[in-house]
Amino acid sequence: MRGFCVPDSATRETVGTAVLRPLQQDDAARFHQLINDWDICRRLPEAPFPYPLETAEAWVAAAVADRAAGRAHEFAILDADGSMIGSAGLRLDAARGSAALGYWIGRRFWRRGHAGAAVAELLHWGFAELPIATIEATVAADNAASIALLERAGFSATGRGHAKFIGQPGASLPVMRYAITREALALRHLAAPEPVAAPAAAKPLVLVAACALVDIEGRILLARRPPGKKMAGLWEFPGGKLAPGETPERALVREMEEELGILLREEDVAPFAFASHAYDQFHLLMPLYLARRWSGTPEPREGQALAWVPPDRLDEYPMPPADRPLLPLLRDFL
Fold first, then answer.
1. Which listed residue, 40, 52, 81, 205, has the most CB atoms within 10 A of its CB?
2. From CA 224, how far away is CA 126, in angstroms rounded?
3. pLDDT at 189 (0 to 100)
4. Would the CA dihedral through 58, 64, 67, 69 be positive or negative?
5. Radius of gyration in angstroms for the set of CA atoms belonging to the chain, rounded to a whole number
6. Do 324 and 305 contact (CB within 8 A), yes or no?
């Protein structure tokens, strides 16, 4: 069933309350009750109809095993009351650095926004937690509701093709293929902070200070934004927005204590370079400072992952577009 989608709602205003939890073996009976429906099975290439209980039990068991092995991550979609209403997941293709998205919703829960909520949550989780750069989806060409849902989620069409559906013996049906990259999702959901005064026709200017902490081995500390935050899964230099009336140096002292639990003095940071990058909604100006002295050991205080990275390996860590031009400068200097 991987990679194909069943419609939930084509109405943009509908907002779902669905949440995800890992699929469990005792979900099989409910899984079978929901999926054994012609209007669902006919849109899933690997789903027979009628859909036997034994097949549901075997499929759920395989999903649990795949999750344990890291091959795929299948979730139960839950309604607000905690009951299972469908399933969604990602199957990894490690060689390509991608994953295939699939989801379906029980018929009586269609057109309530649950699928849109589940897909949005799964995209953020996947890019934050899995070693992938792209998430792909395939949908029957006549499935207008799912096509609309994918496009609203930020997917772009990548091609057309045909696929066999075992619930429709002998049928090779036209399908549409879609994909979204980590960067595209991050930029789509990047919200502009409060702008400084600017002409009405100009983009707001956002000022952020960042610091490259360098240890005695010459490694640089990077932080990965955690799930639930804008640009989740991307690595960056620690830092943050300036408060009103705050200097970049003072902002770094505050941010290093809040984010990492270390004490950094203003006299210990030295201006190194700056990034100037035009995002769709605002223009980012980010001075980058260097620091080799601080008190304490950096620890993640805001749910972020940390990594000490040699300068020649910085390219291996996916970063926001504004940060990337700074990497060759750091490599040459260090």
1. 40
2. 14
3. 58
4. negative
5. 23
6. no
**Residue 168 tokens, joined:** 């429709």
Find tokens 């066999």 and name the residue. Answer: 164
pTM (2 d.p.): 0.59
Whether residue 32 contacts residue 48, with contact meaning beta carbons closer than 8 Å, is answered with no
Q: How many residues does the chain have?
A: 334
pLDDT at 292: 95
DSSP three-state, residue 55: helix
Q: What sign results for the dihedral spanned by CA atoms 167, 172, 176, 179?
A: positive
Cross-strand bridge partners of residue 221: 308
Q: Report strand pairing: 172-181 vs 134-140.
A: antiparallel
Reported in sequence order, the residue ranges of the chain that DSSP labels E, i.e. its strands, are: 19-22, 72-78, 84-93, 98-105, 134-140, 156-164, 172-181, 205-213, 220-224, 235-236, 239-241, 269-278, 283-291, 305-309
- Which residue type occupies 37? D
Quick one: pLDDT at residue 244?
87
For residues 94 and 317, give the distance between their C-alpha atoms in angstroms, rounded to a whole number.
16
Single out the residue of 129, 324, 285, 312 nearest to residue 220, CA to CA: 312
What's the rounded Cα separation, in Å, for the pair 13 and 112? 10
Average pLDDT per block of 10 residues along the chain, 334 residues long = 46 47 92 90 82 92 93 91 90 92 89 86 88 91 87 91 73 86 76 48 84 95 84 88 91 94 93 88 91 94 92 89 88 84
* Cβ–Cβ under 8 Å, residues 211 and 173: no
Instruction: Please provide the distance, in angstroms rounded to a whole number, between the alpha carbons at the two ends of the chain.
Output: 50
β-bridge pairing 134-140 and 98-105: parallel
* Kind plus residue range of the DSSP H or E element containing 329: helix 326-333
Q: Return the number of other C-beta atoms located less than 10 Å from residue 37's C-beta.
A: 18
